[in-house]
TrEMBL record:
Gene3D superfamilies: Periplasmic binding protein-like II. It comes from the Bacteria. Residues 1-27 form the signal peptide. PROSITE patterns: PROKAR_LIPOPROTEIN (PS51257). InterPro entries: Bact_solute-bd_prot1, SBP. Keywords: Cell membrane, Lipoprotein, Membrane, Palmitate, Signal. This is Putative ABC transporter-binding protein. It comes from Streptomyces chartreusis NRRL 3882.
Amino acid sequence: MKISNRRSRRAATAVALGAVLALTATACGDDGSGAGGDKGADGSGKGKIVFWDNNGGVRTEAWKEIIADFEKANPEIKVEYVGIASTEYQSKVDTALQGGGLPDVGGVGAAMLAGFAAQGALEPLDERLAESSLDGKLNKDMVESLKAAGGGDDKLYSIPTSANNGVLYYRTDLFEKAGLEEPTTWERFFTAADKLTNKGKNEFGYTIRGGAGSIAQALDAMYGQSGITSFWDSSGEKTTVNDPKNVAALEKYAKLYKKVTPAADLNNDFTKMVAQWDSGTIGMLNHNLGSYQDHVKALGVDKFRGIPQPTGPGGKRVQVSNPVDGLGLFKSSKNKDAAWKFIEFATSKAENSKFNESAGQVPSNTDAAKDAWISKAEPTKLAADALSDGSTTIVQLPYYLPDWNTISKADNEPNFQKVLLGKMSAKEFLDTLAEQLNAAQEEWDQQKG
């Protein structure tokens, strides 16, 4: 995998707080927690540590197994597990940063990394990693993705656990019946979307994401078709999102709505989109590795495949970055040595393999990525191969910008719906998005001096 990076950046100023949510006493961890400005301590390497799972409920069972394994191997350390829904996680951490109650260890993926690092909440982990059993055992591209997302000081604030790569799922039974070739190129994708649609029979070639989370999927389709390999131009100050090639790509993609997709797609988030695909007769779905097991339960393994995103110009595959997930050590921890032991254990070969087999994601531990289950979970194997065989270029999204989440969600998801409805042109949408991104980048450059 090639990662398109722009010049290095230093940490930003504090980001705005999310909504304030109350924290329970059990979530606080009396012996290992604090506020964002607390420098913490290495501690004895024993006692209790508190772990916040950033995808509680979905990954709770897997983490509890890993914690049980860890406590068996380290009887002098007890881990208190706190599962927090992914939609609430950032606001929980932001609240604790101001009022105290941070955990020792928490899930810290690329999308929220810059904000936490900018507030001085996370411990740099480069030295600990270099001196640990993990040194040389983690996927280099995942490590670099987290470094790039951390604010530009070239420090590692989160140890990668997995990559949840983008996948094109397609119904093999429907393709075979229609005599269609596998949608490995964008040209084949559009041909199949059209041919598999029969509105009178409620059959559609594709389901498009028009609700929450729509922007990242639209960007993926744009850059995949255009073949543009960097989010910023050569100056590093202007985004390429409104490049004429991207405008043309988005126009073509948006025209799929209602022509070859259900009308309900306008408001679909990933949950509704996945459920609709699993229960209906829709030819193709863009999502990530996380929904693979849902498809297996609904369709079995014989009616669908999950393959890397289609290739574009010159047979090259270009994708936007899917956030790498990881584990961060909070600076306020009073027991950093014990917390690091847990991070090191959780990303070791056996435990990282166990976690990612359950999640259906690409392991960060390179030894775990060789385990037998990878070959059995075909989408994961193909995604892992695409990330390592040089066939894929990743366009790094600017997670480091404090305004990124607001710009890519609240500010522009409603506008993308207008594009789908024909009430806003693709050019107007992308020019507006570009203007906001360029302003955010300029502000960032001013802040970092």
